């Protein structure tokens, strides 16, 4: 770069640029050792920090057209709801904040069914019909994930809690934690 003239002030890094200081050599070695771009290394670091104590689960529908990743505990708290649609679909799910869910592929292969209040968005694959995730009425700012649609290897335990969806308003009002499950 060009040398600054007398009296010139050092400019702070621009947006997206940062000075790693004494860590620059360590950062470069990490990138090289793991063959990562700067963006990939930054994502690894941010994920490790933001999702401490969580694991990255991957999953999808039966035909593979819909794929997602979700950060959640290896020990899942799954709801078994007895409302009309959950009973018909045998829908069991755990709830995560929207920020911990990423649809990897298949947005154009999803369709949505709603009924009653139309708050719950029951998304499913147009090809195979599997609902691997949806937006629950109890947590419209999050996702309900079907644990049986996760790939093998990341779930340690599953604890299932029955919830009385036949009396939905009462059950959600009385539940101590369900509304907070979609909060980061």
Which descriptors would you attach to this protein?
alpha+beta, 184 residues, elongated
Q: Span from first to last CA?
A: 43 Å
The percentage of residues in β strands lies in 25-35%
Largest sheet: 5 strands, mixed
Q: Tell me the Rg in angstroms.
A: 22 Å
Low-confidence stretches: none
Structural class: alpha+beta
Side by side, the strands of the main sheet go 8-9-4-3-10
Helix content: 10-25%
- How many individual helices? 4
Topology as a string of helices (H) and strands (E): HHEEEHEEEEEEEH
Overall 3D form: elongated
Number of strands: 10
Mean pLDDT over the full residue set: 87
Briefly say what this structure is.
The protein is of the alpha+beta class and 184 residues long. The protein contains 4 helices and 10 strands.
Notes on the protein architecture:
With 184 residues, this protein is of the alpha+beta class. It is 20% helix and 28% strand. The protein has four helices and ten strands. The strands form three sheets. The chain has a five-stranded mixed beta sheet with strand order 8-9-4-3-10. The two termini are 43 Å apart.
Give a topology summary.
Elements: H1 24-34, H2 38-50, E1 55-60, E2 67-72, E3 75-81, H3 84-89, E4 92-97, E5 101-105, E6 110-113, E7 122-125, E8 133-134, E9 142-145, E10 157-163, H4 168-174
């Amino acid at each position: 770069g060009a040398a600054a003239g007398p009296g010139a002030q050092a400019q702070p890094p621009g947006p997206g640029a940062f000075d790693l200081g004494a860590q620059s050599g360590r950062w470069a070695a990490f990138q090289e050792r793991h063959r990562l771009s700067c963006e990939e290394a930054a994502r690894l670091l941010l994920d490790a920090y933001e999702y401490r104590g969580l694991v990255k689960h991957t999953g999808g529908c039966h035909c593979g057209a819909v794929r997602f990743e979700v950060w959640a505990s290896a020990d899942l708290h799954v709801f078994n709801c007895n409302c009309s649609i959950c009973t018909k679909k045998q829908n069991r799910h755990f709830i995560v904040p929207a920020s911990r869910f990423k649809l990897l592929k298949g947005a154009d292969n999803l369709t949505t069914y709603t009924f009653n209040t139309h708050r719950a968005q029951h998304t499913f694959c147009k090809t195979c019909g599997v609902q691997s995730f949806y937006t629950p009425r109890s947590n419209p700012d999050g996702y309900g994930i079907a644990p049986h649609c996760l790939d093998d290897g990341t779930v340690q335990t599953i604890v299932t809690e029955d919830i009385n969806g036949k009396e939905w308003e009462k059950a959600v009002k009385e539940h101590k934690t369900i509304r907070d499950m979609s909060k980061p």
